[in-house]
Amino acid sequence: MRVYKIAILPGDGIGPEVTREAVNVLQVLSEIDSTFQYEATEFNWNSEFYLKHGRMMPEDGLDMLMDFDAILFGAIGDHRVPDPVTIWELILPIRKNFKQYVNFRPIKLLKGLESPLKQNDPIDFVIIRENSEGEYTNSGGTMFHAEAREMAVQNTVMTRQGVTQISEFAYQYAREHGLTKVTNATKSNAVIHAMTFWDRIVEEVADKNTDIKYEKYYIDALSAYFVQRPESFEVVLASNLFGDILSDLGSAIVGGLGIAPSGNINPSGEFPSMFEAVHGSAPDIAGKGIANPMAQIWSAALMLEHLGRKDLHDAVLAAIEEVLEEKKVLTPDIGGTASTKEVGKAIARKL
Amino acid sequence: MRVYKIAILPGDGIGPEVTREAVNVLQVLSEIDSTFQYEATEFNWNSEFYLKHGRMMPEDGLDMLMDFDAILFGAIGDHRVPDPVTIWELILPIRKNFKQYVNFRPIKLLKGLESPLKQNDPIDFVIIRENSEGEYTNSGGTMFHAEAREMAVQNTVMTRQGVTQISEFAYQYAREHGLTKVTNATKSNAVIHAMTFWDRIVEEVADKNTDIKYEKYYIDALSAYFVQRPESFEVVLASNLFGDILSDLGSAIVGGLGIAPSGNINPSGEFPSMFEAVHGSAPDIAGKGIANPMAQIWSAALMLEHLGRKDLHDAVLAAIEEVLEEKKVLTPDIGGTASTKEVGKAIARKL
Ligand SMILES: CC(C)[C@H](C(=O)O)[C@@H](O)C(=O)O
Ligand SMILES: CC(C)[C@H](C(=O)O)[C@@H](O)C(=O)O
């Protein structure tokens, strides 16, 4: 029997608090289902580690992670280390080096949850975000420090390979899940070089998949549609930055960041994929035990699905929905008074 | 008495339809208030013009506009001309050459309008969007056409002058309007070169204006907050692209693009400023006479305020609100059955 090797990176702030509950759910699953066994190894690569060692992970950190089947990531960042450091030395190197070029973010209004929108139609779509290039590059710089002519340049870089592979993933995902439409988030009317290129490559892939409907909106209009008619989307395909924005916005219309999960996926399986709540380390509520663990538990469920255990994913999601529907054990972000631990336990009990 | 010289660029699609109603409102104002006189000159620079002349405006188009006190712009784009052409050869050259470095966008839930959000607090803030540089540059390009290694690069360029002047405008606006807080929209955790520079310059200005509260959010989180707690914002300061996204999103939470106005402002007055609805030319409903003229009429009101006639601005906005509150003459986008013309007339009648 396969024993999944899982790397746990709890991180900073509420990261460890919510990750503990997610690992507890894995533990419970392995107890009730003997066909699911795992071995978790924790890595304390966080701001504390940085303050001690001057780096976010050991020099051979990526090599160490290579041995694992998947990574469960908490959240990173506290006030003692600049955000760009924690991010460009930990999250982004993992995403980029492990070719996790898909950032997968379901936007689904779970049973029992209330949307801040008046509209009542079910909301259930996914954002497929390019996760390896685009607006997130360290190419560029600043010049003429403190002079009147001081300036900064930032290079967005998009490649045929990068845009093709994410577009193909989006179409493949749509087909495998019986979905009928891919929506391209673009801004080719203004961000001429990068986004007209993006559209051209996306449309090359769309032209090979004419059984699935293709539509394209400018990111500004699309953001408005997320509020006005979120029920009309199935698969939203977006660049790195646009996907980042749309997924927080998407999470807001279905109950907030306390719920929103994500997977950073390397589709070939050559490298481990990484799963993390969309939310950050939330230093303002860290240590209070009130963070909602649902986003991280759902992220762990996405990990299980990725590892071939869709059955366990579905069981975990059903357990989360049961707890939501009962409305008895909820954290403050969704109107309850329960603690992180209590919610984690309630979900585990449902399993 | 001063006679304001106003250039009218109706543009494409619904642009001419809604602009006609806005000009009609100006006409009515000049009839009832003899201290307000204007002279309108129409320029048919649109897609039709492009198809005839191979350019979006005459070679000396910008010179021709220089004579005017302000520009009222409809909307541009139809399916016969690629969007980047209409935009990079007409809207953007005007914004950039006339140093309209402020894109001013009020987000206000008018009386009588329903928000798609369940929350009931008043929504009333402004987005101050950098309008001359940033993500909107034609610097960059593509390489290796059709090869496997094909790629595109897009340069975001931010300058000390550009970021300083928009930040100063935001603080000055806040102070002049008795507002207490400026919210900086950033992404300095990921878009390292440009956005850490942006933050640094914004914060230099913030440090000189400590009587006004400063806060900073990443654009992804901020987009979510627009849905979750829009009542908490007063002045939102954003880069060109982020301001573009936030203003469509903002318009969605207060009734949609049929209402949202904007001003492209050259604060020094050295060049004419330009006023336009946030919405586009909407080719899908063009010619049907059902476009909502309120956004364009409100834009004309912003123009009046810019020209020193805040009294007229307030009168027009009050007239729009009266029509909204009566709920009798509304276009389909906000739940009515009236035509563009009927709504325009109803507003004019209130004056
Ligand atoms: C037409 C387009 C280039 C423009 C922009 O992105 O600035 C529009 O969306 C706007 O907001 O005025
Ligand atoms: C932490 C940050 C760099 C990250 C991103 O922008 O990708 C986060 O917002 C996310 O969405 O995972």
Describe the fold and architecture.
Two copies of one chain form a homodimer. Chain A is an alpha/beta fold and 351 residues long. Chain A has two domains: 186 residues, Isopropylmalate Dehydrogenase (3-Layer(aba) Sandwich); 140 residues, 3-Layer(aba) Sandwich (Isopropylmalate Dehydrogenase), CATH 3.40.718.10. In chain A, strands 2-1-3-12-11-4-5-10-8-9 form a ten-stranded mixed β-sheet, sandwiched between helices. A two-stranded antiparallel ribbon of chain A has the order 6-7. In chain A, α6 links the parallel β8 and β9. In chain A, α1 packs parallel to α11, α5 crosses α6 and α7 runs parallel beside α8. Chain A is globular and about 55 Å long. Chain A starts with a strand and ends with a helix. Chains A and B meet through α4, β6, β7, α6 and α7 of A and α4, β6, β7, α6 and α7 of B. β7 of chain A pairs antiparallel with β7 of chain B. Bound molecules: 3-isopropylmalic acid (2 copies). One 3-isopropylmalic acid sits at the interface of chains B and A.
Apparent shape of chain A: globular
- What is the CATH class designation of the largest domain in chain A? Alpha Beta
What would the CATH topology of the largest domain in chain A be? Isopropylmalate Dehydrogenase
Low-pLDDT residue spans of chain A: none
Beta content of chain A comes to: 15-25%
The helix/strand class of chain A is alpha/beta
CATH homologous superfamily of the largest domain in chain A - what is it? Answer: Isopropylmalate Dehydrogenase
What's the SSE pattern of chain A?
EHEHHEHEEEEHEHEHEHEEHHH
> How helix-rich are the residues of chain A, as a percent range?
40-55%
Counting copies of identical and different chains, the oligomeric state is: homodimer
CA-atom Rg of chain A in angstroms: 20 Å
Distance between the termini of chain A: 22 Å
Characterize the main sheet of chain A: 10 strands, mixed
Family (chains A, B): Belongs to the isocitrate and isopropylmalate dehydrogenases family.
Catalytic activity (chains A, B): (R)-malate + NAD(+) = pyruvate + CO2 + NADH
GO molecular function (chains A, B): D-malate dehydrogenase (decarboxylating) (NAD+) activity; magnesium ion binding; NAD binding
Cofactor (chains A, B): Mn(2+); Mg(2+)
